[in-house]
Write a structure and sequence with these properties.
Elements (H helix, E strand, L loop, with lengths): L6 E7 L8 H5 L5 E4 L2 E4 L17 H4 L5 E7 L9 E2 L10 H9 L19
Length: 123
């Protein structure tokens, strides 16, 4: 049996899901089920995305609302199916700072990013 790992490359279903069921029908392994009229990844450990289903799986191309994307999620289980890693993925920066870094890279011209709460005393 393969060693247990923590993170798996799986479809992540967002709040944009309208419950059309196309991804449920497209999933060959029945990993996605409708729960309360919305698609839910119920058995991530058996999902083969990143493996037999290809890099993005069969569920993503059929979603017309862009409600599903691939991402690293913490999942219990062995590495028999799909794509796994034993270390946490790098966090994805979002917002204006990410756009600026994307335009200029790790330029020395950019100021050092500091949290607005850093160095404040607790009261």
């Amino acid at each position: 049996m393969a060693e247990k790992q923590n993170y798996k490359w799986v479809p992540v279903i967002t709040d944009y899901c309208i419950g059309c069921g196309k991804c449920v029908d497209a999933c060959p392994h029945q990993c996605i089920k409708p729960i309360w009229d919305f698609a839910t990844l119920v058995t991530p450990e058996t999902c083969t995305s990143g493996g037999a289903c290809g890099e993005v799986g069969d569920c993503i191309p059929v979603c017309e609302d862009d409600a599903i994307h691939m991402g690293w999620e913490k999942v219990e289980g062995g590495a028999e199916t799909g794509k796994w890693t034993d270390h946490p993925p790098k966090p994805v920066r979002k917002g204006l700072w990410a756009v600026i870094k994307g335009l200029f890279g790790e330029s020395s011209m950019l100021p050092e990013y500091k949290s607005t709460t850093e160095g404040r005393e607790e009261q």
